[in-house]
Write a structure and sequence with these properties.
Strands 4-3-2-1-5 form a five-stranded mixed beta sheet, with helices on both faces. It has 13 helices and 13 strands. It is globular. By secondary structure, it is of the alpha+beta class. The longest helix has 34 residues. The termini are far apart.
Length: 482
């Protein structure tokens, strides 16, 4: 029996169809030779192999890495001295495009920015633009963003928002802490604008080369705001990790070269307002992201849709606009799994209002956090510590804030969607996390295994098993008091 492999990446399909294919940015899909982007369909590459890295220099942001592992065209690469991530990635993209701009062949460019992954860093001129803007605190920012989103038609007027348990009381903070927290958010906003400015620079360059009128731009994100930053980066033990890597968390240099910044769960909840939860959870705040598709080939009339789409739809849509067929059950002489995802082209052109019907289901699972979308409804379960491990049912067209649980009033829909999720688990062989699973503990174990080796892991686990017996023995040896 032949074993089907994953479908080819979109870069491979486009390269085989005659496209130049370029990639500049974060890869994090494997660092072995055959896993590099230069072996996965990309003609020219400069890629970060790790989950993240410093934005100012070639430096790791976590102790699991010895260095920031950058590769260019399949070989290890040393960053330039004047490196800043967003500027550099666009510089390289422009360089790749210009190399072949005169040969008449189309191109596909993939630019996964480091912004705004930790460490959050930005040039001073962009940070300065947002100083003072967040002094009012996360509660008011969350309310203002809700009002602005309703005003712009992004959310219905009826939308409500739930309180996120990890959001602290702004008024209990000292004046010094408020000042520090507001600057953390200013750095975050500055990093976003620095990215946006460089995207604009790429678009202007394409226009100057006469390429913009035949180019489609797609902008999106892989998740909502990250709430992993500590509530107080200068308190123990949160301050020890950046310090161990040689980073500063001082107020004056926050966001600049040599500093380590992030946003806390409190401002992360404001960043995703009015949605609930954030990255690593399956609330709308962790999953719902912008998807902007623009360009002269699509027409000049802006159009906003509330229609549901999923990450896998992007590849199908790109192939459709490129006139490239999806691969069937075989590719390059090998059996492959079918390419999932729906073509959004009819939705973009206005031919249809949605590409997923009321009976279509999309399931997803991440470390026990579970979700199933069907029509306008969402079945969702967020695990502790932020969730409670219970299933909830929401109509996210009217209630994107996930406030009104419908499982009691729509028991039949709830049961049908629960059965559909269980089928998704079976079909995709979803494995439940082990009892007592903790993401933080697992990261620590992975780090120890990577750095110290399997023997140390066995020793540590043995010590944990024996510790209760040692404590019991010591208690038995104490003199009894009568």
């Amino acid at each position: 029996m032949s074993r089907k492999i994953r479908p080819p990446l979109i870069a491979t399909l486009l390269e085989d169809a005659g496209y130049h294919t370029y990639m500049a940015g974060k890869w994090h899909l494997g660092a072995e030779r055959d896993q590099l982007p230069s072996r996965r369909g990309f003609e020219r590459t400069v890629a970060l192999m790790d989950s993240g890295a410093d934005n100012w220099e070639q430096r790791p942001y976590l102790p699991i890495y010895d260095t920031a592992n950058w590769f260019a065209d399949g070989k290890r690469f040393t960053l330039p001295d004047d490196f800043y991530s967003s500027r550099f990635l666009i510089d390289k993209t422009i360089e790749f495009i210009d190399e072949n701009a005169g040969d008449g062949k189309p191109f596909f460019a993939y630019v996964p920015f480091q912004a705004v992954h930790m460490p959050v860093q930005a040039p001073q001129q962009y940070i300065d633009r947002y100083m003072g803007l967040y002094d009012q605190g996360w509660h008011k920012v969350r309310e203002q963003r809700l009002a602005r989103a309703v005003e712009m038609g992004v959310f219905p007027e009826s939308v409500s928002m739930q309180h996120v348990a990890t959001t602290a009381d702004w008024e209990t903070l000292s004046a010094e802490r408020k000042k520090y927290e507001a600057k953390r958010m200013a750095v975050y906003a500055g990093m976003i604008e620095a990215m946006d400015a460089n995207i604009g620079r790429l678009m202007s360059h394409l226009a100057s080369r006469g390429l913009a009128d035949n180019t489609i731009f797609i902008f999106t994100s892989d998740n909502g705001a990250e709430g992993s930053g500590p509530p107080d980066p200068n308190a123990f033990p949160a301050s020890r990790l950046p310090a161990s890597l040689g980073y500063s968390t001082d107020y004056e240099t926050l966001g600049l070269k040599g500093s380590f910044s992030s946003i806390s769960p409190s401002f992360a909840s404001a960043a995703v307002s009015p949605l609930a939860y954030y990255k690593f959870y399956v609330g709308e705040g962790g999953l719902r992201v912008p998807l902007v598709i623009s360009g002269k080939p699509l027409g000049d009339k802006p159009r906003q849709t509330e229609s549901f789409s999923w990450a896998t739809d992007i590849a199908a849509t790109i192939l459709s606009y490129a006139g490239v067929d999806k691969p069937g059950t075989r590719y390059a002489g090998r059996p492959v799994l079918p390419l999932s995802g729906r073509d959004l082209k009819p939705l973009i052109s206005g031919e249809t209002d949605r590409v997923y019907g009321d009976a279509d289901s999309i399931g997803y699972e991440l470390t026990g956090h579970s979700v199933l979308f069907r029509g306008d409804y969402k079945l969702v379960r967020n695990q502790p510590p932020l969730g409670d491990g219970e299933w909830y049912l929401y109509d996210i067209s009217d209630d994107p804030g996930e406030v009104n649980d419908l499982k009691a009033t729509m028991p039949q829909r709830f049961e049908q969607m629960l059965l559909a999720y269980q089928k998704f688990e079976r079909d995709n062989r979803v494995q439940p996390p082990p009892a007592g699973y903790s993401q933080t503990q697992q990261i620590a174990i992975n780090y120890a295994r990577e750095r110290l080796g399997p023997n140390i892991i066995v020793l540590l686990l043995t010590a944990l098993v024996l510790l209760p017996f040692l404590v019991f023995y010591q208690m038995r040896q104490r003199p009894k008091i009568h």
